[in-house]
User: What shape does this take?
Amino acid sequence: MPIQKTLSIIKPDAVARNLIGIINHEFESRGLKIIAQKMIKISIEQASMFYYIHKDRPFFNELIHNISSGPVVVQVLEGENGILKNREIMGATDPKNAEDWTIRAKYAKSIDENSVHGSDSEESAKNEISFFFSDIEIYNR
Ligand code: UDP
Assistant: This one.
């Protein structure tokens, strides 16, 4: 299986509830390595660029408001099949539909405050990582 990097965000609802450590443990205990990590506050402008693909969706305004409502932890995770593996560990977008063992089932408050973001393809992983990180900030073996 290929070793892949993916962009993860621990969203404001989870940071506000002191869940950074426990969510990092979910990743690390399931074989993903944290190879870059920083805490930032995303502005509304940055959020609308990051989520541009969702600009016509009815939940867009709420989405950019939520992601910029407080500090987030942006991180690069790496592992075998890392993009899909992270999506599995996150669980379904709506925590009501997420499997019991996943981050969203255990910690998300609702579909709009669902604790984590993860890239959904190789192309989005590449774009999303470079949106937040320069090469020098990422550990490369
Ligand atoms: N979202 C929302 N309402 C919806 C669908 C999505 O607030 O009805 C938010 C939710 O926080 C989700 C984000 O928009 O994580 C991006 O949606 P996507 O379908 O890409 O889900 P994800 O890839 O995060 O599982």
